[in-house]
Every structure is written in structure tokens, then in C-alpha cells.
Amino acid sequence: MRFNRLITVTIIVFSFALFGFGLSSTLKKKVKKEVHKVFNVENFELKSVLVSKEVNNKLPTKITSDNFYSLYVNETLLGYAFIDKASSKTAKFDYLVIFNEKVEIVSSKVLIYREEYGGEIGSNRWLKQFIGKTGKDRVNMNTNIDAISGATISVRSMTNAMDNLLQTIGILQENKIL
């Protein structure tokens, strides 16, 4: 019995070592490409933003070591990157939000969209509505974010995700984490 448990633990540890944690290689490539486009830098470092459990419990969007990063070039802070998933009609899509060092949105991008309909939310024209928003701003489909015919569920989901993220940014700033 003890031998079986040892083998099981060994297999689990080996699996984690083999597959690793964090972003998939596809997402890493897309993030790197977007950061290069926004900041015009080739080599940068992603450092996880660490948030205590106590503060994280207060956040509308939970921060993990795999979704919110500081962006550095030679120990100089460029900004921040947030990667997460939001729901569409039957699946989830991956998105990226890039902030400058003042924690203002400078770019948002749908990285991977998995639905047949609603992909229009990935258009630069629609996503530019979020540019310049900060932790003090709120976004809402009924007031300041345009709807897209045929993509209502994805628009609502992305807008809610962005509003929750902005509220989270505000709380992190109030707690002097950013």
C-alpha cells in the first residue's frame, strides 16, 4: 500500500515537472508579440504580481501567479499584463490587457476565441473603447461600451470582465500593491 502511494506521488510530481505551470507556449508567444507591439521591446521579464490571500478575498477578479504580471526591462517597470478567460456562448476565450506604468490600459486583445459567432469582440475598433481606463473607471454595456449585433453574450462577458479587472486594479492601488 505504501509503495503504491509513493508511485502515485512520484507520477504526480513528474507530471507537474513535465507539463509545468503558467501560460501555455501559444499564449506566451501571443503575449510577447503584443508587449513588443505596445512597448517596442524585444526582451522583457514577466514577474508575477503577488497578492495576499486577505486582499485577494476582497477582489472581484482573483489574482494568481499565472494571470497578473509586472513587465520589466533591465529592472525598469514598463507596465503590467493581465491574462484571463471570459465566457462566450458555449466556451471561454482568452484575453490580454496591458497597462502602462501608471496602470492605465494601453492595449486589450482577444488572444484565442473558440466560438463560431461573436469573434467581432476581437476587433481593434471595439477593444479601443477600453484604452485609457484606470482603476477609477467603470465600464458598462448600458452606458459607455458599445454592443455588437450577434456578439451580445461575448460583449457582456468581456465588458463585465474588464469592469471587474478595473475594480480590482483600484483596490490594488488603494492597498499600495501597485
Number of helices: 5
Low-confidence blocks of residues: 2-21
Largest sheet: 5 strands, antiparallel
Distance between the termini: 49 Å
The percent range for helix content is 25-40%
Rounded Rg: 18 Å
Shape: globular
β-strand amount: 15-25%
What do the pLDDT scores average to?
88
Strand runs, count: 5
Specify the structural class. Answer: alpha+beta
- Biggest β-sheet: strands ordered side by side in the sheet: 1-2-3-4-5
Helix and strand run: HHEHEEEEHH
What can you tell me about this protein's structure?
By secondary structure, this protein is of the alpha+beta class. 36% of the residues lie in helices and 22% in strands. It has 5 helices and 5 strands, in the order ααβαββββαα. A 5-stranded antiparallel β-sheet has the order 1-2-3-4-5.
List the helices and strands and how they pair.
Elements: H1 2-19, H2 25-39, E1 45-48, H3 53-56, E2 68-73, E3 76-87, E4 92-100, E5 105-112, H4 124-127, H5 152-174
Antiparallel strand pairs: 1-2, 2-3, 3-4, 4-5
Concise summary:
This protein has 178 residues and is α+β, with helices and mostly antiparallel strands. It has helices at 2-19, 25-39, 53-56, 124-127, 152-174; strands at 45-48, 68-73, 76-87, 92-100, 105-112. Mean pLDDT is 88; it is low at 2-21.
Question: What descriptors fit this protein?
Answer:
five-stranded antiparallel beta sheet, 5 helices, disordered N terminus
